[in-house]
Amino acid sequence: MHKEDLVRLFFVGLCMFGNQVFFLVGLYFAPAHIASIWQVTQPVITVIVTLLLHTEVRSWLKIVGIVLASCGAAIVAFFSTGGSEGRSILIGSCFFFINCVSNSLFVVISKPLVKKYPAMTITSLSYNVCSVLVLLVGICMYWSIYFSPRGP
What we know:
This protein is an all-alpha fold and 152 residues long.
């Protein structure tokens, strides 16, 4: 693998890390039905990111798709009767937004790599990067809980 591809692979893994961690933290703050509403926005966010980065050509069909998907998510959110368990839906939604953006960036950044290397290889390597990052966060959290002056 070339050096540029390794750097890109690290950022793909970082996006996967953001996807996983921010989803789980979002679930701590907001109920699951809010998470499910946010997940349908990932294709919309992906199209918006590709249009902003000029990696896709803008078309009326894509714009209409974005508007319809946004309206659908808004309708589901408005008529949702899910529980309000959770600490703060607004904070949870912020974490879900970062989760969705991270997953969209994962797709966009990994696209050139998937053209050069097998998709299974890129996915497995990005999960390895993600695992190392999650392990580091877990060690830091464990350290801060069990070795803080206040104790566990």
